[in-house]
Amino acid sequence: MDDQGKSGYKGEHILEDSALGGFLKQLVDGSLVLSKNPKPLLVVEQIDRLTRLKPSKGKKLISLLLEYVDICVVEPSGTSYQLYADDGDDESLGSDIMLIVVIYSAYKYSANLSKRIKSAQKRSLADSVTKRVATRFGRLPFWLVRDGEYYAVVDKWGDIVKRAFDLLSKGLTSNQIADIFNDEGLEVPSSKRENDGKGVVIPDPKSVWTIARISRFFRDKRAIGEVKLKHHDAPIDLYPRIVSDATFYKVLELASGRRRNVVGKLTTVKGLLASYSYCFSCGARMHVDKRTRPSGYVDVRLRCSSVAQKTLKTRDCDCTYASREFERVFLEMVVDRLSESDVVKESRDDERETLKSKLATCENEIKEFEALLKTSNAPSLFRGLAVQEDLKKDLERQLGLLAKSQPVALKENYRRIVELANEALDPLNIEVHTMLRSIIERVEIYKSGDKNSVLLVELKSGIRRQAVKVKDKWTFIELEPLKELEATAN
């Protein structure tokens, strides 16, 4: 197990997403079963690889481990070791008192080291603010390296950033530039930590250029040298400029001009997925919000409403996603993976009559509840009335959709969507959204980390399509219509 980069002093190494934390979770929940007699031997390079927590917490961690394994701690010199076991009177086994002493020493060392690191960071920050020299800590933009006391631009990566800004200033969008870079086979940078702990940037052959990678260039002002350092209030000019101020602010103006917010008689729409998108993981509605970046650029975010549910202790969803990451594949699915016949719902003669019958029954129920409420104030009557009123609204909505779902009109809407999708999207967003709303019933969205994503589209005709992204590659899947699934279940 390797938890390099995880702080044993802060307890990051025992979280579930770390190697040791994941190992412990498997032992505790029973998904990993080890031999009890004899117990396996866990060999540790030094005791501080296991814990640098406070002695009381460190002792609990070691005691939990000793329930499943015996521990062999190798001394720093590598010439000797000490064994620890949960039981046994062998003199070769370390005692609990000795273990606590070792844990305390590791914690004390880390506490002192943490103070020295903080002090060094403060000195480095002061030098950077007053002398404009390179900081001795923190991550850099991938196109920069530390060169002595100052920064230097890596030509290979710097040329890519300059070209991206040049194309952006000419009016191309982030997704168009990503396509150009991928078609030309330009390498994608990836950060990696070497054995000495220093970070390096190397090409990642498995990655591709995406909208997010291009948009990241102008979400802050690092391209024109401005950076906001940790523990310092105001941004400072510290990095070498990769583009001119004129180019940067022209790109920013063009990008901000594409804001998904058009006011008119058809109400305000912030994004293509507004009003009919839901969380694939928990089913909650996705809200569309604008977010202002440090550079002043405004992008559109999809936020799962479950984040506002304070009583919900655990969530499987990531809660917020960039709208553009899904809009492109959503349009591709609708335009390239569907046909005019898919958007037309098969009409049944008895469907309208069935809905009207249900609506009449619901209206009678409402009248009965209203009559009972004239003589009683029982809470159950108010709840029953509210349920019937909600049902009435839903039935009226379904009847309205039937009235509007004329095959000819739906096919015309679909043809208009295809036409608009091949033109400049942003200024026509309100019309595209209106057309899509006429054929789309529901879109479910999910994203896990930077790699895996799910987009599920349900049309009002019952057709369902799903797109799954694994390692930057989207795969389209045809799903069974919901009505067929429901019939099978019944």
TrEMBL record:
Pfam families registered for this protein in UniProt: Recombinase (PF07508)
Domain of life: Bacteria
Signal peptide, first to last residue: none
Keywords: DNA recombination, DNA-binding
Residue span, Recombinase domain: 160-257
GO molecular function list: DNA binding; DNA strand exchange activity
Protein name (Swiss-Prot/TrEMBL): Recombinase domain-containing protein
Species of origin: Vibrio agarilyticus
